[in-house]
Amino acid sequence: MGAIVPDAVERYLAGLNRGGDPLLAEIAQAGVERDLPLVDAEVGALLRVLATAIGARKILEIGTAVGYSGIWLAGALPADGMLMTMEMDAGRAKEAQGNFDRAGLTNRVSVMLGDAQRLIAKVAGPFDLIFQDGDKKMYTPLLDRLVSLLRPGGLLVTDNVLWDGKVVPGFVTSAADDKDTRAIAEYNERVATHPALLTTVIPLRDGVSISVKTR
Fold it and tell me: How many other CB atoms are there within 10 angstroms of residue 189's CB atom?
């Protein structure tokens, strides 16, 4: 059984999510085989729905990996929209660029190679949507800067906020008190009480928080 959502429910949701994009399916399968840190298709669909719902034209992503979530996001952009996505690993960044090219999104995506903590100081907002899925220990240190880059009414979406249930005291009996778990628990508290954000958490896959900038 899944730590957050029962397997039967996850299979049911996966069955409903039939986008029919062979490239996304190929990247997802390769991700499973190579144990890459990719979002699930259901989270990808959520990202596209959110970006479409707010009419996003400018999106920032922290943690490109090989471009899977970026394709979901950029696919919601208009022809003159832009996704800026940051990745530390040069090999993954190169592979991601190739996947964006294959998806026909070259003109709507800019892959930035380097440490997000440094790169974030070089980008200019406002962004309509920011997706945070990079180093978990950097979630809280980046928070205020990301909020400052959002437009009012913009969305900050963060993946892995339930961390296999490890952030819930007593939920996972064998949960390790590791740095990532502590970092995500701290982030959840900060984002839930941030004066400029209204936040909810969706227990989908590994937990996704959605925050709207209210001022």
Answer: 12
Strands 82-87 and 58-62, sheet pairing? parallel
DSSP-H helix ranges across the chain: 7-16, 22-34, 41-53, 68-74, 90-102, 116-119, 139-149, 179-193
Distance CA 148, CA 140 (A): 14
Residue ranges of domains in the chain: 7-213
Give the class (CATH, top level) of 7-213.
alpha beta
Specify the range with the lowest mean pLDDT, choosing from 1-5, 52-56, 93-97.
1-5
β-pair partners for 210: 157, 200
Pairwise CA distance, residues 8 & 18, whole Å: 17
Q: Give CA separation, 75 vs 31, 103, 107, 114, 188, in Å.
A: 19, 9, 12, 24, 28
Nearest to residue 19, comparing CAs of 41, 36, 34, 1? 41
Instruction: Give tens-digit pLDDT for 195-209.
Output: 999 999 999 889 999
Task: Name the 3-class secondary structure at 112.
Answer: strand
- Residue 164 is given by DSSP the state G
Element (H, E) at 85: strand 82-87
- 195 burial type by CB count under 10 A (0-12 exposed, 13-18 middle, 19+ buried): exposed
* CA dist., res. 164 & res. 144, Å (int): 25
Q: Is the pTM for the entire model greater than 0.70? A: yes
